[in-house]
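User: Predict the full complex structure for these chains.
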Amino acid sequence: MFQGGVKLIDFKEISKEKVIENLQPPEKVVIPLSQHTGIPSNPVVKKGDTVLKGQLIGENAGFISSAIHSSISGTVTGIEKCPLPGGKTSPAVVIENDGKDTSIEPTKRNWQELKTEEIVSIIRESGIVGMGGAAFPSAVKLTIPPGKKAECVLLNGCECEPFLTADYRVMKEEADRVVEGLIIISRTLKAKKSYIGIESNKRDLVPLLRDTINKFGADTPIEIKVLLEKYPQGSEKHLIKSVLNKEVPSGGLPIDVGCVVFNVQTALAVRDAVCEGHPLIERVLTVTGLVRNPKNLRVRIGTPVSKVLEYCGAEIKEGMKIILGGPMMGIQVYTTDTPVIKGTSGILVLPEEDLPENIQPCIRCGKCVEVCPMRLVPADLGKYAENQKWDRCNEFNVSDCIECGCCSYICPAKRPLVDLFKWAKAEIRKVEVK
Amino acid sequence: MTEIRCSPHMHSRETTTKIMWSVVISLLPATAAAIYFFGPSALMVILTCIISCYIGEVVSHLIFYKKVKAFDGSAVVTGVLLSFVLPPSIPLWMAAIGGFLAIFLVKELFGGIGFNIFNPALAARTILTVSFPLEMTQFVAPLSYRVNAITTATPLGIMKEGIGGQLPSLWDMFIGNRAGCLGETSILLLLVGAIFLLARKIITWHIPVSYILTVAVITALTGQNPMFHILAGGLILGAFFMATDYVTSPITSKGKIIFGIGCGIITSLIRLKGSYPEGVAYSIIFMNMFVPLIDKFTMPKKFGLVKSKK
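Assistant: Here is the predicted structure of the two-chain assembly.
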């Protein structure tokens, strides 16, 4: 159990029972070369090249970087700038679909015969990144720094963001592949124990997951932990706190307390890459909110958001906003030309909120202090940031903020606290760079 | 064009204005008691305070911001609370001065909502006590307005001076049938409002419980009846509605408990050793000054701090 957090209405019933559908690959995909944490990939194709589904189009440009593959077969029409969620742009490989969906020759492997380094290298070359949202390259997580040891692996199936049900559906429909992925990861890290963490609203998965675990009969124990339905239960640090009662040190990584956390869909991607030779070219996401047909969809990476919304019968009108991810941490996009990327867990259409135009004064009610899962004092930090006192923000640990949004959510004055903290962090980073 | 906003994209329904009006609602039962026990003049004092607070807000907004800001209900809260700590027989013009100063001097001059150091209602009461000592310490007997109003001493006054009549029974003190400030007497109906505030999660238990317990323990240790001290004076009103004022109380739970204990110690000291019979208002004002210090020392330890020191 972690301190703080908020109880949210989860809105998951909208899409919870919708079986995952495959979205037809679009006529054109736009695959950004920067869709992960780290250095953008180097393109290895040029205009006019013909590519197959699963073919490498961008290669690793460093240790913290990722390979990128074509999600359809067709012709490269160029490398163009494309909008990313968050207002940035990235060069992207634009591929026109030839409609044949011809795949590269997949390499089937028996992972039990592979060495650790081979598995890590397959994961790196398959372009697997964390699919919970942060898109951190998985191969880096699997490379344990010297002096550290991964005692246990946590599979993050919390999906604590309201509205999202993609991970739930994946666990329900693809339990075999997910659990096998977890076993592969666990073996690769030589971990002693694994945990699957789910929020109590997914309790119905427990028998299924248990049967699946028993079927595989892994040589290390896997425990299912049903956790309280409390946001941000799925935050890496808070999942570790809830499952193992350990706190990741400030500024540190999970490996500092001997664990590594993977998202459900990441585990599935690991399994598909290692056993089937499939690189990461598609993902499951939830399309929900103000759409006529809410769905859980398997979408090729690079599909424009407009195509996905069209398929789900969404008419975007004035006063509606489109959010990639969940309502608490998702990013609002200004154009539906934005492509679905590896970290896109959902497409959410919500009505615009009636929020005050100017920043209203803090009345010191203390609710933000109560809910902050990082045990900061958002009320004070907000005032410092509002007055651009960056040194004070730094002194009072704004850099520890995980931007979960609990404080902004609960604030009766509707102060844009997360907004202010992102600003403060950016300013502090600027000073540090100098 | 839809405006692009930063996450989160959903917010709780609670707003500052809703909180303010909820506090007003929570004070309605006690308002009814005040009118019942002290008559229509009590209602006049309450209305005078609300109106003068509102005028104070409008005037200060016009001076400081050149426009009247949106009305959030906080002036009504201050108005009602101020009237509750005034004697029912106070001349209306004095009440009006109090209301105006509560907002203009105590709140807006310090930066407006969220920035005042002192509880506006209590600070205004203190100003009035210093300015009009006679009128501020004259109390009428409950229900006496029906025949002809007679002045009498409050239970704490009787206790301190040892003269001025018979102490009311604890039951009379609980329902409010005793002399005192306008809104402080009916413990029963104040508690009804307090339960509403607790249930609405507008206030937490920390300040009221630590405050009242401290008074009870200290008075019991000095051989007095703690129940009498809880029911007498403005303790219940102060502990649930004044000391819990967001702006002028600590922000963390731990800080709130320290604040409550501090208020309790000072209230008991004034009641037992001071020359004034009652000390709730002064103790809260006094502790208001310590809030920044308490906040500083009760700052929560951030997540992951303990381990990194190893």
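The longest strand of chain B covers residues 139-140.
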